[in-house]
Amino acid sequence: MAIGQPDLTARIGSLILKNPVLTASGTFGYGEEFAALVNLDRLGAVVVKGISLKARSGNPMPRVVETACGMLNAIGLENVGAERFITEKLPFFQKIRTPLVANILGDSVAEYRTLARRLERESLVAALEVNISCPNVKKGGVAFGIDPDTARAVTEAVRKEFTRPVIVKLSPNVTDITVIARAVEAGGADAVSLINTLLGMAIDGETRQPRLANIVGGLSGPAIKPVALRMVWQVARAVRIPVIGIGGITTAADAVEFLLAGATAVQVGTANFFSPRASEEVVDGLAAYLRKQGLESVGELIGGLIL
Amino acid sequence: MDQPGQENATITRTEQLTPDIFRITVRAPGIAQAARPGQFVMVRVADAYDPLLRRPFSIHQVIGPDQVQILFKVVGKGTGILARATVGRELDLVGPLGRGFHITRQQPLCLIGGGMGIAPLLFLAQRLCQVPEKPEILVLVGAGTRSELLALARDLEQLGLAVRTATDDGSLGHHGLVGDLLAGLDRRARQAYVCGPYPMMRAVAGQCRVLGWSCEVSLETMMACGLGACLGCAVPRGQGDGYLHVCKHGPVFDAQEVAWR
Ligand SMILES: Cc1cc2nc3c(=O)[nH]c(=O)nc-3n(C[C@H](O)[C@H](O)[C@H](O)COP(=O)(O)OP(=O)(O)OC[C@H]3O[C@@H](n4cnc5c(N)ncnc54)[C@H](O)[C@@H]3O)c2cc1C
Ligand SMILES: Cc1cc2nc3c(=O)[nH]c(=O)nc-3n(C[C@H](O)[C@H](O)[C@H](O)COP(=O)(O)O)c2cc1C
Ligand code: FES
Description:
By secondary structure, chain A is of the alpha/beta class. Chain A is built from 8 helices and 18 strands.
């Protein structure tokens, strides 16, 4: 490796990424929406909008509202469904040199299993990210991600069907996130990613109505970064598999904090909306930071928090 | 469709048209060249986390080869910050975005604007006036009061277009809704281009349907990205289930494509 060119590669199970910067699901569409604004080839991976077996139309509007240094969304997991994803959205990834991570969601263990089996056949899907923040229909709508047993059951089902890396994406809306992290590790996850959005709400004092039609929604953006960082730090100490840090990451300085807390890689989410080149800028900034610190590889930073 | 770009656009002019209506002109060559009437830009009002999201604004005019103008009303934090922007400052813009008005050969044309809905209609009127055989264009403009209406209609009148007016308080033109003006027109079928507050567009779209006119409307919703990525800007489809996305499928729609609530 040439002097002054730090090694940015990151490893998630068997997948080797050219750098540890991914885009977060639901904030980067299916990749192509950003092609005119970002050099997609420079990113570690693109995580696409969550896919379910059948198309979902999502929640009524308003679906998004800005809050202090953040936003609430209640999109309702609108997506084109697995088959249209495969025929219409996947082929775009033949044109770029960055791997695709497919984010999947379901309302039963069987749906997750079927999705994993179907996507196993698509070689352009480099890894799966399993969103377990969805309501489990069989368990009365309680999210898979808040119960360690169901979180583990989903992970095992996907693991059996999918041979490439399986990342399980954790919900922060739990009392102890390390319990869920350990459960999915035991279920065979190659990595965990966290955090998904924090449940929140906003009210219009003039009309006395909730600002979201769905009443409650998921909080994201810089406002949630301290919470995400704390959870990443806790989980990184509780599991042996790689942790992917998510939550308010906008700049390379933010990414550095997550790496120091123990993350192997990071995802840029809401920042893509207000700063479409944010993910690419995090890659550049990370390389500059490593050079300045005299480090040869990003790996030297991981878990480097000094207590 | 042309691809959008991100540009650091230097402010070349700022104008205050009424106590709360402002106009900002910026140098943004990429957007100026690609823009079509009805498209919009996403503006980063401050290099800060609060306000966090970009704000959408219609392209009001393209001036010369490289300048773009937005017209806006102060309604909250973001527009308040924009109103204080000064010449020489850079504004971070993404655009041009969305699908604009469909320029047809059908005649005559009727542009109907309510309040800030006039913003995209000036650009449309300018482009329509450049069509080789200039079509017959009638403009109907509604606003709250006389001063606002004068500020909004002035540039349209300078294009030499016939402008009819209505104000909510009766201080200028017809005392009432802009849609009321449709009743006084001759019976020829027209192509209508409409932008304004939602209830006004719903009413005018309904009138057009009864009259047998084709009608395009420019819708507004909350938007987080403007790029078709967040799926936050959904409006229900007119036929069938599901949603259209204002930033990608619109903001201009055929009035029949969307369900009116
Ligand atoms: C495609 C499109 C084109 C637009 N063009 C223009 C234009 O040319 N001129 C103009 O004055 N305004 C335009 N708007 C509306 C403009 O985006 C909002 O007025 C602006 O975002 C308000 O920002 P704020 O921070 O001042 O208000 P906030 O403090 O965020 O909110 C104040 C009020 O404005 C409403 N609002 C906030 N954001 C939006 C939004 N994205 N869309 C609609 N309403 C919103 C809120 O519900 C609230 O009632 C357009 C909107 C869209 C979607
Ligand atoms: C509009 C929007 C849509 C999202 N959709 C999904 C989704 O489909 N699947 C998922 O796992 N996470 C989804 N997320 C969560 C993000 O991927 C991310 O975990 C969260 O926003 C926190 O990161 P951020 O603060 O950087 O945005 C969505 C977030 C937003 C803002
Ligand atoms: S504003 Fe994000 S999809 Fe339309």
